[in-house]
Amino acid sequence: MKKNILYTIRQYSIAASGFIMLLLLASCSSNGNQQEHTGNHATETDTVVGMNKNSKMEDHSNMDHSNEKAKEHQQMDMQPARDTLDELYLSALPANQSVISKQSAVPVKDSIQQFTITGQGYITFDPRRNRKISVRIGGRIERLYVKYNYQYVRKGEKIMEIYSPDLNTYISEYIFIRQKSNDLDLMKKAKQKLLLLGLSNAQIAQIDKNPAAPFTISIYSPFEGYVLFNPSAASSGMTSSGSQGGMGGGMNGGAGAFTGNASTSLDDNSIREGMYVSKDQTVFWINDFQTVLGIVAFSHENEKIAKPGLEVVVKSELFPGQTLRSVVRMVEPVYRGAQKFTQARLYFSNPNRKLKQNSLIRASALVNSGSLIVPASSVYHVGSTAIVWVLKTKTKDGSNVFQARAIRTGNRSNEYIEVLKGLNSSEFVAKDAGYLADSETIIQY
């Protein structure tokens, strides 16, 4: 019985193991078929993807080729527009640099043109006519009859009374020699000494009548003209170089300025009663104003033209209906008030003293210039820069295309302006530059 049971169990185990083996074999075969199927599917997919990639590459190459052709056609379409100057292309130019207008264009001329240069100025004292008034002996000013600058005095007019102890001593010696000595030669020498000290013959005759030394001695003007306390200021910084004289006219002293102490004059070189003067001190100058000096300043462009020898026509504000003629005698650079400029000297004869100090004048001169010229209306000033609108081309409808350009100008008249740089004789410019500019536009040139 036990043997049969063991046998049966062994048979079942053998059958079970066989069944398991069959299952394992079946499983292995199914996995192999699945892997083969999967591999075949991957191969098919790669083939399809490769075909798609090739087709896309062909499509991209076709698109690039078509784009290049489109660009070529576009360039070919744009080139005739530029060559024929299409209105649309010209309208797209910068508005602050190019302008399309129906305004007429005028040629740039190359010819000899006569220009009129002008300058403004004033009349002042001629320093060559300054005459020096100096005292020949020291003392104190008791009375002063010259009160203000530019005061007019006549020849022989009393200008001051001075108290001088030294002069009183010399007068006392003359009186003593006249009363106590019969030596005519000694008396003549004493009188000559008083004359050299500034006394006149009339004053000495008065001393002969009243033999007493006066308290003060009167000083008389040896010249006629206008009193100048500071001639350098009156002549705009120019030094005086006139002939020299003194009381009675003959003896000079000093060096054209006050030679006394600083306390003997004021800041404006004027004098006052009560001041002390030293020997040979210049108290003021006198100018007869028979010849006057005109100081004229020309513009920066005309400085090189205003040369010595240039004939000018001058009009004064005192008599605008009359004209004066003169010649530029000297051109000098001046630095005053932190500014540097050039001024010309003109001399005028003024016998009747019609021309007055600091009266305004206007000088003009004609000069010939051979260079490029344009109408005055063709130049437009942008600050300190002068520009013109140069003709570049024409549109289909006949409008002119102008472009801004900076130039350097020279002489100018009422009609024309000289162009020194920036234009050629073969070019054309707009006739009226002001009509092509907008007040709110920043012009590029």
UniProtKB/TrEMBL annotation:
Highest taxon of source: Bacteria
UniProt KW keywords: Signal, Transport
Protein's name in the database: Multidrug efflux pump subunit AcrA (Membrane-fusion protein)
Domain CusB-like barrel-sandwich hybrid: 133-239
Gene3D superfamilies reported for this sequence: 2.40.420.20
GO terms, molecular function: transition metal ion binding
Domain CusB-like three alpha-helical bundle: 172-209
Stored InterPro entries: 3HB_CusB, BSH_CusB, MFP_Cation_Efflux
Gene Ontology terms: biological process: copper ion export; plasma membrane copper ion transport
Cellular-component GO terms for this entry: outer membrane-bounded periplasmic space
Signal peptide (UniProt feature, chain positions): 1-32
